[in-house]
Design goal:
One of its GO terms (molecular function) is oxidoreductase activity. The protein contains eight helices and 18 strands. It is α/β, with parallel strands linked by helices and about 375 residues long. It folds into four domains: about 45 residues, no CATH class; about 100 residues, Translation factors (Elongation Factor Tu (Ef-tu), domain 3, Beta Barrel); about 120 residues, Rossmann fold (3-Layer(aba) Sandwich), CATH 3.40.50.80; about 90 residues, Beta-grasp domain (Ubiquitin-like (UB roll)), CATH 3.10.20. The protein starts with 5 loop residues before the first helix and ends with a strand.
């Protein structure tokens, strides 16, 4: 139970931020301060952001929307960005990454959507154990996925929980007046499982130049819905796409299909993508390589199949990591030499002393890492 009112705590937090820039900062240990200050209020911290759970609401059959009130340390988020969320389960801290469902101003409310994953420790805990009034620890928002500019035609492609960052962008466009032509292709197995569908249908019905197209891979018989997975035929009604700005979010497989489909149709003016699942490997990637870890002074036998992150961990190293799908950049590491492949884009790079994300990069031959 908080001993201090939330309004007083958030009024005081900017003063604590200023204190850290003063000569007294050297006498403050963040861990000690946060521990004792937490007795008075969970949000009373030097830097860390804690958010109070204000509401939980079902979105489809397996997704819950969580509304949060972050402390005054929160700096806000742009549509399309992501943030780390940390929970403690049975004494162990676990961090996962989520995209806010709307752009938020500093000190504004925050909404995230969590899809229940079979066997997912954190997602199931958030669904079943998290209560209104609890506090969650957040990191600051990050990432450059989002609207850079709005062209004559904005095409969005979303699958499953990939709708959440795209919903944030659509809400932002609606607030700006929604003058551009916008098309959303929203893929899911069953309409009853598709998060935010009623809101999207209402939103698009109010925007004369916006078009919502559902595509179902399992359910049949819904009027107006396409059937099956994304293919060129689904987008044929759009006509010429050379002036179209495209944004896609979904699983790694969905993103690969988006790339292939748009290429088959002649390409678009620009394409931004974000995958929320790790890359998939094939047997052809399993050629033997040598991985050298410079700081550990080790050389190990590896292959071109698992990511450099997975192989470093298998070799006994403990590089920093977070989302494990190329979003959070926690695993960024310097590659000293060698050729690597970005598993999201397929591009090869042989540049020395370049920064790579270990979780979405695989070796193509021998590689030396600054680990």
């Amino acid at each position: 139970m908080a001993l201090l009112p939330t309004s007083l705590v958030n009024f005081a937090l900017p003063a604590l931020t200023a204190l850290q820039r003063s000569p007294l900062a050297g006498f403050l240990r963040e861990s000690v301060f946060d521990y004792y200050a937490g007795w008075f209020h969970p949000q009373l911290t030097l830097k860390r952001v804690f958010a109070r759970v204000l509401a939980k609401q079902a979105q489809g059959r397996d997704t819950v929307a969580i509304t949060l009130a972050p402390s005054a340390h929160w700096l806000g988020a742009l549509a399309g960005q992501h943030l780390p969320l940390t929970v403690e389960i049975n004494g162990v801290r676990h961090t996962r990454y989520y995209s806010p469902c709307a752009a938020t101003r500093r000190k504004g409310l925050l909404e995230i959507a969590v899809k229940r994953s079979e066997g997912g420790l954190v997602s199931n805990w958030l669904h079943d154990q998290l209560k209104v009034g609890d506090y969650l620890e957040l990191g600051q928002a990050d990432g450059d996925f989002g609207l850079k500019s709005v062209g004559q035609h904005q095409l969005f492609l979303a699958a499953g929980s990939g709708i959440t960052p795209i919903l944030a962008m659509l809400r932002s466009l609606q607030q700006q007046g929604g003058g551009a032509e916008v098309t959303l292709f929203y893929y899911g197995r069953d309409a009853r499982d598709m998060a935010y569908l009623p809101e999207l249908e209402a939103m698009f019905s109010r925007m004369p130049r916006w078009r919502l197209q559902l595509a179902l891979t399992g359910q049949t018989g819904r009027d107006g819905a396409l059937q099956g997975r994304l293919c060129p035929a689904h987008l044929s009604s759009l006509g010429e796409l050379s002036q179209t700005e495209a944004i896609a979010c979904g699983s790694f497989g969905f993103i690969q299909t988006v790339r292939d489909t748009l290429t088959a149709l002649g390409g678009v003016a620009s394409l931004q993508v974000e995958a929320f699942t790790p890359p998939v490997f094939t047997q052809s990637d399993s050629q033997p390589v040598t991985l050298r870890y410079a700081r550990a002074q080790q050389s190990k036998a590896g292959t071109g199949a698992p990511t450099l992150l997975a192989q470093a961990e298998a070799h006994g190293l403990k590089p920093a990591s977070g989302c494990r799908m190329g979003i959070c950049n926690t695993c960024t590491c310097k590659k000293i030499s060698g050729v690597v492949r970005d598993l999201q884009t397929g591009q090869l790079s042989a540049s020395p002393n370049e920064s790579i994300r270990l979780c979405i990069t695989a070796p193509v031959g021998d590689v030396t890492l600054d680990l």
